[in-house]
Design brief:
The chain has a single domain (3-71), classed as RNA-binding S4 domain (Structural Genomics Hypothetical 15.5 Kd Protein In mrcA-pckA Intergenic Region, Chain A, Roll), CATH 3.10.290.10. It is globular, with a radius of gyration of 11 Å. It has helices spanning 17-23, 30-38, and strands at residues 3-6, 15-16, 43-44, 47-48, 55-56, 61-64, 67-71. With 72 residues, it is an alpha+beta fold. The protein has a 5-stranded mixed sheet, with no helix packed on it. The chain has a two-stranded antiparallel sheet with strand order 2-5. The longest helix is centred in the middle third of the chain and has 9 residues, at 30-38. Helix 1 crosses helix 2.
């Protein structure tokens, strides 16, 4: 499973799940991100996540479509 790292820097404490998937280019658009999240295809820290705008913070791990994203 390919692993990617996303770094939260500066004054930011979190990024929304839908925006993270789009920024990491594991989906083609925000609409696609919303669809795959609502369909239960995204796993956050070992649990299926269906909240489109879930706050993702340092230490969180996301899995989707064979991709693994670790937020640092």
């Amino acid at each position: 499973m390919p692993e990617h790292r996303f770094s939260i820097e500066g004054d930011f404490d979190f990024i929304q799940l839908d925006k993270l998937l789009k920024l990491m280019r594991v989906v083609g658009s925000g609409g696609e991100a919303h669809a795959v999240i609502q369909e239960g295809m995204v796993v956050l820290n070992g649990q299926v996540e269906t909240q489109k705008r879930k706050k993702i913070r340092k230490g969180d791990q996301i899995e989707f479509n064979g991709e693994h994203i670790h937020v640092v």
